[in-house]
Design goal:
There is one protein chain. The protein is of the alpha+beta class. It starts with a strand and ends with a helix. It is built from eight helices and four strands, in the order E-E-H-H-E-E-H-H-H-H-H-H.
Length: 221
């Protein structure tokens, strides 16, 4: 299992839907595509690489040798890649797009709504499928780092295109001009910051207690 690679987290959530309610999801997808502003809260979360919802009908699952399955439900598959921790993502998602989430997951069985946050987190956790293999071509870069690097590349290409026949003085002026436009984009790759060491420290602090408890249990026998 590896939901994390570098600074990115890969999430897959699959939830059952009653087949007679699937049409509503198709309708809500049409609205989202027709009115992108309805997902404005999602598009504004720059730490999200992408997020996608897809309907899988109960007769569309692939047969990988297990035989054709007879399923009672259709399913809603949600895939997303993002930077940060699982909790940060769910919190920001629910804060930025509460109505949109309720619309997209409305037909899913036992969906509790995105607010309050605790039942929503429990629902996502219960239906999340852990990733067996997760590849990231730039593990040391966040989504903002990649976007910044593309801006630097664009500036370099423009600088190259304008260098033809220029004098040293003109080259210097052009270099300074383009450098000033991307100065804030000259970051570097690195490891993601650790959100919290609490769990790791708790395990260390419990070691003596667990060792003592184990000895006590053994001696009682």
């Amino acid at each position: 299992m590896s939901n994390v690679t570098g600074k990115a987290y890969g999430m897959n959530v699959i939830t059952p839907m009653k087949p007679w309610r699937t049409w509503f999801n198709r309708f809500s997808f049409m609205i989202s595509r027709s009115i992108p502003s309805s997902l404005g809260g999602l598009l504004g979360l720059r730490f999200i690489h992408f997020a996608r919802w897809a309907i899988i009908k109960r007769d569309q699952w692939p047969d990988l040798g297990q035989g054709k399955q007879q399923l009672a439900n259709d399913y809603l598959l949600f895939c997303s890649n993002f930077n940060g921790t699982w909790d940060q993502y769910i919190d920001a998602f629910a804060d930025g797009l509460p109505n949109g989430l309720d619309l997209l997951w409305y037909t899913s069985t036992k969906y509790p709504h995105s607010v309050p946050i605790t039942p929503f987190k429990n629902y996502i956790r219960a239906n999340q499928i852990d990733t067996n293999y997760y590849y990231n071509s730039v593990p040391g870069a966040a989504q903002r780092d990649v976007t910044a690097a593309l801006r630097v590349r664009e500036a370099l290409l423009k600088l190259e295109a304008n260098l033809q026949g220029s004098t040293p003085e003109q080259f210097r002026a052009l270099f300074v001009r383009y450098l000033s436009t991307v100065q804030n984009d000259l970051g570097y790759e690195g490891r993601a910051p650790v959100a919290s060491n609490d769990t790791e420290n708790a395990e260390i602090n419990r070691e003596d207690y667990l060792h003592f408890a184990g000895e006590l249990a053994t001696s009682a026998r």
